Amino acid sequence: MNLDNIQILGFTACIDSVGSTLDRVNSIKRDDEIIQLLNADSIASSNHIIHGVNQAFLAFERGENLAKDISVEIVLRCSAQRQISKAFDLLGLKEGQMNLCAVLIDCDDYSVELSDIFTRDDSVLEADSSRLMEIYNIGDVEIENMSIEEVIIDRITKLTVDY
C-alpha cells in the first residue's frame, strides 16, 4: 500500500440500508483499492484520519493488528478503540441522514462516482469540538495542554503502545 495516496472526501447521505450502501460503494472500486466510509461527525481532522490509517497499516506489518480485515482495522485505529462494536458505534455507518468521511487509499479518483451515490460536502469534515469531546469522552483536563485532535491522535498511538 502506498499511504502517500490517500484522499479524504466529505459527503452527506441518507442511508436506507448500510449493507446495500457498502455493496454499491464496493462495486465502483478495484479489489486492491480501499474506500472506507466513516461517520464524519466523529472526525477531528485529516491528520486524525491519516494517523489512524497509518497506524492500521503499521499494525498489520508488525502482526499487531486487532482485526483480520484492514478496513476494520482502520475503523478501530481511527476510533482509538480496541472493541469492534465500540469502534463502529463511533465511526460506522447508520441508517438515516448522516455526514460521511470517505477515505480512499490507493484509489483512482472516485469523487464523481461517489457523488452519484452521496452529496459531496467537504464542510462535514469541519470538527465540532464540543461534540468530539462528548463522543470521545475527553475531559477539560486533557485539553489543557493538547488540542482535541492531539488527544485523539495520542489515544490512537497508545493502542499500539498498550498492545
TrEMBL record:
Keywords: Kinase, Transferase
InterPro entries recorded: CGI121/TPRKB (IPR013926), CGI121/TPRKB_sf (IPR036504)
Pfam families in alphabetical order: CGI-121
Record's keyword annotation contains Hydrolase: no
Gene3D superfamilies in the cross-refs: CGI121/TPRKB (3.30.2380.10)
A GO term for molecular function: kinase activity
Top-level division of the source organism's lineage: Archaea
SUPFAM superfamilies: PF0523-like (SSF143870)
This protein's record includes keyword Transferase: yes
Family as reported in the entry's similarity comment: Belongs to the CGI121/TPRKB family.
Designated name of the protein: Kinase binding protein
